[in-house]
């Protein structure tokens, strides 16, 4: 700053501005450049006040003072400023500097997490197992033949269409390359349904003679053949049962017993079960269920059915399918063993399975027959809470239960629900409901139900209609 003031005053600038005033401009500009506390907004105001045309007098008045201060410093030999330098510096301060616009504050952006690296997240690939190349067309066709029920049933139909003098090999030889063990069991059972036990036996003999594709020994083919022959009374081995039971497989023994039951030979089926028990051979409980159902069809078989029920209850591996369990319950109701029905129902629910509407209906009927009407009604509510769709037998049992509870109005509501479900009320439903209203003395309602039943073509009990006609008109 001192060197700038000590220079000699330059000549006057055009426009009436003295060199001293220009020097003061430079001095003020240098001072402003060194200051950091003043912003750019003061630059244009300072330049206007120092370089404008109105500052000429002020520069002339102050010129001697600058010269006095600069006189001692000029003696030191400092060089002065040229006109071009002063003009260049003045032009720099006269031109306003361009300001950058302030950017609005950007919200803090979250950086996305890096993607996991495959070599750190994936397990090392295991070596691929070797795959044997097979002919796709032949393999798929062979699977369709040996596993497809449509193809195996079609083979049975082809065998059934053969003339009596032809052998089954005429059909089976063409299918031999595609058959496997157990494939012909369905064909043999289908031949049994068609009533052709001879053809079933011929099919077994053909399978035994095959050497290129071994199809025998196989318990599935043997068991199917034994069941078909036993059902048509073609199994001539009653005298040899004691010899074959110890060595026969479980599947063959069960098929033999099922065949005897289907043929109505209850004694032979009972003998098979007894020999199996003596030789400590365990058969499936469903065989006992089938035999119980067959024996209980006649009153003289109730004693044997009760004995079989006791044997079935003593089995440690007691297990029945839902349909077998329901069938045994119906036999117990026929034998008036209502406690056994409750035991079966408790066991079935304890096994983790949901009772069906048929099982619910059977237990409700059992409790009604036992006189426990309130417990039966509670089971009806439980069945409705389980969202079971009621069928026609269920409605019949519930209507009869409501009549036994002397609640005909509730029975009539179930009759309305039965009609809404699309069922046609049967004669016993109308008769039970009419009897319920007759006991309550509502003869008008009885006549209404009689007219409704006759309009739908339902034949009512003539004794019930005649007894109602003889009754006097009571209060509705």
Descriptors for this entry?
disordered N terminus, mainly alpha, 62% helix, flat, 476 residues
Question: Level of helix content?
Answer: 55-70%
Average residue pLDDT: 79
How would a textbook summarize the main sheet? none
Task: Give me the oligomer status.
Answer: single chain
Helix-strand category? mainly alpha
DSSP strand tally: 0
- The coarse silhouette is flat
* Tally of alpha and pi helices: 26
Overview in brief:
The chain has 476 residues and is mainly alpha-helical. Helices cover 62% and strands 0% of the residues.
3D structure, described in words:
The protein has 476 residues and is an all-alpha fold. It contains 26 helices and no strands. The chain is 62% helix and 0% strand. Mean pLDDT is 79; it is low at 1-8 and 10-78. Helix 24 packs antiparallel against helix 25 (443-455). It starts with a helix and ends in a 6-residue tail after the last helix.
Strand and helix layout:
Elements: H1 2-6, H2 19-34, H3 43-51, H4 56-74, H5 83-94, H6 118-121, H7 136-147, H8 149-160, H9 169-175, H10 184-193, H11 197-208, H12 219-231, H13 241-244, H14 250-262, H15 266-278, H16 285-295, H17 302-313, H18 322-334, H19 338-350, H20 357-369, H21 373-385, H22 392-404, H23 408-420, H24 427-439, H25 443-455, H26 462-470
